[in-house]
Amino acid sequence: MMDELAKLLELFEVQLNILDALNSEKKNTKDGLKGTYLYKIRDYFINYISDVISSEGYNDRVKLFFETVFNRNHIIGSAVYYVEKNKPKGANELSKERKASSVDEYFIALNRFHELVLVKEYHNPTIFKLLSYSDELKAEVIEKVEADGFELLEKESYPAIQKNEYEYILNFMENKSRISDLDRKVIILFKLLLLYGITVRKVSKIKVNHIDLKKRTLKIECKRHDYLQNVYLELPYGLYIDIEEYIKIKGLDAEDYLFDIEENESLPSSVFSFLLYKIKKAYSMEVNNNSLILKRFTAYGMAKYAISNMLDASINIPVIEMLTDRTVDFILSCRPEKIKNSADYNHYINYKMRSTSTYKEMQ
């Protein structure tokens, strides 16, 4: 069975590589189609369907399974499996919150797999009609996921933390009695998120030699158009001390990754989810246990706070996009409330225009 499923996965990877090569100039994601779709099929669909095939007694008859047995219930079941297993970045291990968009993401990937592989390898007319993704399938997936006790959150359900939460997080991390030695790495990560809003993937790529301890700067490699441009960010003194002490304690060399990971890896959410959960729980007990406020305590919420401050300081969106590796949509979702509302645009634009030298000179 696994040989047949491995063959399907290999065929899918080959087809995605071909499409990525053809569309290299138009690629609209950092990782291309392969990076977007392959893991969804490999880590979720294949895992799910191999268990189904085994439990239904088709281990040596995979072709027969896909041509005569595979049906809408398997499609829906695999989508439910993906949504429930696929925790959002920054969510703690026990969280039952999931991204609402994950349903669409999975069906898009499954449709690709169907078009590029399944339809060519197997003849199953029923599935050909079903797999062009319908709202009915999506509705059933959502119903089953919610029945299992999961909550589907829209993007806006990951709001930025506010000033009070920011100060609480900072004070919590500065309180040595509440922090263990194992938390040192996570504290540096959280401060980078709160200050610069950089993606966890990009933070993961920071090496020790990117930090100049004499000049107190951090080198960030930014892609601008088709070339790399280094940006040297001045580190606040407290963050500089945290990094310096961490490097000494860990005995890191110049070529080591700051966060002690392997080449091309990204920090998994499990590295920082425990401390985030601990801070969130303490806040709920000591300050406010309102569920809407507690939803702000995510890696997204901290990054949005940083980007909101950058926008408020009039740093333009292309610069923020280049520095943070965030999408434009994500950055726009961080705009201060006063400029999210279109009714306030006139006031906001005129307020900014009055501060320009041209306006002042024409007074």
From TrEMBL:
GO molecular function annotations of the record: DNA binding
Residue stretches making up the Tyr recombinase domain: 161-324
Alphabetized UniProt keyword annotations: DNA recombination
Organism expressing this protein natively: Anaerocolumna aminovalerica
Example GO biological process: DNA integration
Domain of life: Bacteria
Pfam families: Phage_integrase (PF00589)
Gene3D superfamilies, sorted: Intergrase catalytic core
Annotated protein name in UniProt: Phage integrase family protein
Keyword Lyase tagged: no
